[in-house]
Structure formats: C-alpha cells, structure tokens
Predict the 3D structure of the following.
Amino acid sequence: MSANPCLILVLNSGSSSLKFAVQDTASRTPLLSGLAERLGEEGAKITFKDDAGKQVHPLAEASHAAALDAVLAELKRRDWLDALTAVGHRVVSGGEKFTESVLITPEVIADLEACSSLAPLHNPAAVLGMRVAVQRLPNIPHVAVIDTAFHQTMKREAYLYAVPMALYRTQSVRRYGAHGTSHRYVAREAVTLLGLDPADHGLVTAHLGNGASASAVQDGHCVDTTMGMTPLEGLVMGTRSGDIDAGAVLHIMRAGRLSPDEMDTLLNKQSGLLGLSELSNDCRELEAAADNGHEGAAIALEVFAHRLARHIGGLMVSLRRLDAVVFTGGIGENSSRVREMTLDRVRVLGLTLDPQANARMIRGAAGVISVPGATPRVAVIPTNEEWMIACDTNELAHRIPGSAMGKVA
Ligand code: ADP
C-alpha cells in the first residue's frame, strides 16, 4: 500500500453474487478482491483473495447487504476503512441516457432502474448493490461506471436496425454494445503500448471471454461494435449463438413449437462453442479435445475464428484507418491458437503474426504479436475493468468541490 493510501471499493453486483475489489489508486493490482456467491440461496459464502492467498467464509445471511457488511468488516479488520475514499459500481446498461461514468444520486439510481428492461439480469442487481452501499457508506461519493456508455458515440447508421423506426422510438430497439469498460481500457492502453497519437488512431478491440464482442475505436471513441441490443449478437460466445439469421430463429421456433423463453434458452445457454462442439463452452477444454481428434471441438474453434475474422474486416470500414487489432479477455489474452486461427483468416487485410511473440503473450503478458515492422499491428493487452472503474471513480470523486482525494498515479 502507498504511504497515504486512497482506497476505492469496486463493486460488481449480480443477481446472486457480489464481486468486489479494493484498489489503491497508486497501483493497478487490487489489494484485496473476492466474490460473495449463492446470495438468495442456501450455502452463501464469501471468498477474499489477497497476496497471502484465498480465504472462504460462510455468510450468515444470504443477501447483498450481508455480503457488503462482510466486505466492510474485513476492511475494518485491516484498518482500511478510514482510507476508503469512494465506491465505484459496475453497471451493464445505461441505455441512451448515460454517455459516461456518473456520480450516483437518487435520480441516477432511478434512471438506471428505468434501464432494467435492457439488462433484466444485471441492472436490478446493480441498483440493489448501489442502494445497499450508499446506505452503508453515506459519507463518501459513489460512482456508476456503465458498460454501454462507451458505445454511445456510435452514429445512427451503426446503431440502428432496419426494422420499423417506431420500434426504436417506442421500445428503444437499437444496438447498445457491451463490455464497454473493457474496450475503453484496452484501447487506452494500446495508445500507450503502441505509441499512437491519442487524437488520431484507429483500433479494432476484441474482448473474448465467455461473452465476446469486438469494437471499432477511432481516436478513443467507439464508432461500431458487434454486440447488439442484448448480449446475443455478433461473435460466437461460450454458450451464446452470436449472429444468426432472424428467419432461422423463427423457423426453429415454428418447427419445434418453442416458446420465446425456450428459444431464449436455446440461443443464450445451449449455443455458441457449447452448441457447436456438443462438448463444452470452455475454449481451453475445446483446444485439448481438438488435439485429441474431437471433430465438434475443431468445428467450434473454426467457426469462432471465422466469425471473429469476418467482424474484424467489417469493423475496419468504420475507421479512418487501422493501426492495430487488440486481443483481450480470457481467450484473447491466453489462446495463442485462437489468435493464430483468426489472423490466418484476415491476411487479406495485411495483418500478420509473429509465432514466437504470439506464443509468449499469455498469462497476463502484454505486447505486439505481429511481425516486427509490419502494419497494421496486432497486440495482446490484458483487460483490467476494476482498474478502469477505480480510475473513473477517483476522477469523478475528485471533481467534487472541496474533495481531498488523491489522483490516480
Ligand atoms: P468471463 O467472460 O466469464 O470473465 P474470461 O474472460 O475469464 O470469462 O474467459 C473465459 C474463457 O477464457 C474460457 O473459454 C476459457 O477457456 C478461456 N481461457 C482461459 N485460459 C485459456 C487458455 N490458456 N487457453 C485457451 N483459452 C483459455
């Protein structure tokens, strides 16, 4: 910890979980992080992780409030409560209302609650987390860092679907994008890593985790992205289909007499890498299986790479020029194989791969993996959404008149 620590508590509330991290604004590695899980169920527990290792405790009460109390009790035990200067909350959807991170007020909470129809699994949980945290920590600023905010700079030609405009006007049907905090973070890091002009550059960022999306980022602003109104569109994901002909959806529903809920489950939970491979949603497992001759695993990885390559090509046209493609997320940061398979399919764009550099860029390593001197470049940059949330939170808290908070190093 730094000499005069400024600690930010980062919270990510899910419907049955609460992820947290305590960041010292002087370091990118959290001092303490963890997860409370099975909230609202039997066997609720909380895991704390720090340099010394992991500790798991049962939670007496299976609620978000009890989980936050356990986190605060741990901060007190470590004598860190006085150094806690602000709380950053991760929010999945801010609809069209929020274009950047924002200090939390009762009005902001109400507006985010009103966006719940756009993220029914996530926003109600985030709002619950905010209410509990504001009640427990009323004297320090709380900030909402909203995933969709980064994508609000898209032009209407990029975010509108070609369906009756009335659906946009009355039901907010449009592309919102996802993983905005991650895309924003790696795009910012890429400018530093690659020595780009912050005011004049073009990137395609590919966030490949269980959920996956790619974005076109021009001069630090999102100009296009693959994820749509819901987290279903675009790239192949662990269990989500990504792009599919809407006509095929109707056909499957009619032929199988599926209800909307059953179709929802098919597309969100039984498709993607899992559906194609008929084996697993886990990329690492599929790579091992493909090596052992499992054809489904090989097919799943091929479709994943093809779809990504196709979208990289598509996203490029939204940019003035392409300086680099950036890989991040569990797959993007670790799977040299998926990166190689993808880059193999975009040679027509002049993208290259240095096999040795590609093999080295795993487990948290950041660097260039294209052939030295070749352009556009290709890079791997591990994402750090908690750090991005802590930075925004610290910056906004700092803007409050009379605030004595430290700046992020
Ligand atoms: P989430 O979206 O849930 O945060 P992650 O970003 O952690 O997910 O990504 C999870 C994915 O990353 C899984 O498919 C996992 O198999 C993959 N992954 C992690 N490590 C490796 C690896 N060494 N090789 C290939 N895939 C990996």
